[in-house]
Design a protein that fits this description.
By secondary structure, this protein is an alpha+beta fold. The protein folds into two domains: 164 residues, Aminotransferase class 4, branched-chain amino acid transferase, N-terminal domain (D-amino Acid Aminotransferase, Chain A, domain 1); 170 residues, D-amino Acid Aminotransferase, subunit A, domain 2 (D-amino Acid Aminotransferase, Chain A, domain 2). Strands 1, 2, 3, 4, 5, 6, 7, 8, 9, 10 and 20 form an eleven-stranded mixed β-sheet that branches. The longest helix is centred in the middle third of the chain and has 16 residues. The protein is globular, with a radius of gyration of 21 Å. It starts with 5 loop residues before the first strand and ends with a strand. The relative contact order is 0.14. Bound molecules: pyridoxal-5'-phosphate (PLP) and 2-OXO-4-methylpentanoic acid.
């Protein structure tokens, strides 16, 4: 690490970058990056102290962070995160997809966890700085990207159960290939009736670490049942479909010659996905109907059996669109579209990827130019 440091143009970050990994090491890691296995050379850290606010950030070598054993995140779980991606564009530039939406959701999560909000422009500047510094890590192939993982943790050394007075915002980046190693092959899902992801008044609409910790045993159960992913149903009626693992869910209906994509309405217990929101708009542009409403497990089974529902898929930043081929629960199993990827899921996936990779015109200003 250099001992002398420079400031970023805004003066808000000290620049202490690492010497870059060798071309050989980087090439080996980027050849088959998978998801979240390798990280770029650097990271961003911004400290927060009650009374002082956000301090000067640093761009520094990716590495361990010191944390006091009494640090509050280690005990009471004040931790939130986000995920968005940077894409190589055909003109050689690099753009991120809707990063402001992630910044706003990050702050909504912060509020729910009694954590300080981070100014949106600081969130964006941090991402621009890290991507620019580590641009050689942005993969070039369509379907590949640099996954950005901002997060915030409570770091005050104090065991009282109250909001931490100190925090760290950290941003790391990871070259990403396919999230599900089997590619866009449809997944088999297990409808979880033993576990609940989120309840009214809880933290379901926040992207906080605890939601994921609480989901792991259900995901394990799904695996034990021979499934790839868990499907969550609502906590009160125990019948309305909410999400699939860490992704939102869509159903495709064919009604009177019209294609309609339907996704569960946001009730406060679902994560408001940015891919979900984008697909609702893209679907309309493609001439499909797009609706947000409640769908029960019974609807799912019956509408499928009666031929009205033709496809189902999950969506999220990491995996984009993942078709659902088989649904299993304690009550039985049913197959969607003969376990194949349906044309509507495929079309939506292709259209979204084309927008993200700059292969079609970005008519909505969803892409944010970094460099
Ligand atoms: N639902 C949950 C629980 C998630 O963790 C995610 C991923 O961030 C999503 C849905 C999809 O959200 P997005 O499309 O913003 O990635
Ligand atoms: C998503 O982006 O779809 C996710 O669920 C992120 C996940 C790795 C937590």
């Amino acid at each position: 690490m250099s001992t002398t440091s420079n400031l970023s143009a805004s003066g808000r970050f000290e620049l202490q970058p690492a010497p870059p990994a060798s071309d050989e090491v980087r090439a080996a890691r980027m050849q088959n990056p998978g998801f979240g296995r390798f990280f770029t050379d650097n990271m961003i850290v911004i400290p927060y102290k009650e009374g002082e606010g956000w301090g000067r950030g640093a761009l520094k070598p990716y590495g361990l962070i010191p944390i006091d054993p009494a640090g509050s995140v280690l005990h009471y779980g004040q931790a939130i995160f986000e995920g968005f991606k940077a894409y190589h564009q055909p003109d050689g530039s690099i753009k991120t997809f809707r990063p402001e939406a992630n910044a706003h959701r990050f702050n909504a999560s912060a509020k729910r966890l009694a954590m300080p909000e981070l100014p949106v422009e600081l969130f964006i500047e941090a991402a621009e700085l890290l991507i620019t510094q580590d641009r050689v890590w942005v993969p070039k192939a369509v379907g590949e990207s640099l996954y950005m993982r901002p997060f915030m943790i409570g770091t005050e050394a104090a065991l009282g159960v109250r909001p931490s007075k100190e925090y760290l915002f950290i941003l790391i980046a990871s070259p990403a290939g396919a999230y599900f190693p089997q590619g866009v092959k449809p997944v088999t899902v297990w409808i979880s009736e033993d576990y609940v992801r989120a309840a009214p008044g809880g933290t379901g609409s926040a992207k906080c670490a605890g939601n994921y910790a609480g989901s792991l045993v259900a995901q394990q159960q799904a695996k034990d049942k021979g499934c790839d992913q868990v499907v969550w149903i609502d906590a009160i009626h125990r019948k309305y479909v909410e999400e699939m693992g860490g992704m939102n869910i869509f159903f495709v209906y064919e009604e009177n010659g019209k294609t309609i994509v339907v996704t569960p309405i946001l009730t406060g217990t679902l994560l408001p996905g940015i891919t979900r929101l984008s697909l609702l708009e893209i679907a309309k542009e493609l001439g499909f109907g797009a609706e947000e409403r409640k769908i029960s497990i019974e609807d799912w089974e019956k509408d499928l059996r009666e031929g009205r529902m033709t496809e189902a898929f999950a969506c999220g930043t990491a995996a984009v669109i993942t078709p659902i081929g088989t649904v299993k629960s304690v009550h039985g199993a049913w197959v969607i579209k003969d376990g194949q990827t349906g044309p509507v899921s495929a079309k939506l996936r292709e259209t979204l990827l084309n927008i993200q990779h700059g292969l079609v015109l970005d008519t909505r200003g969803w892409l944010h130019k970094v460099i």
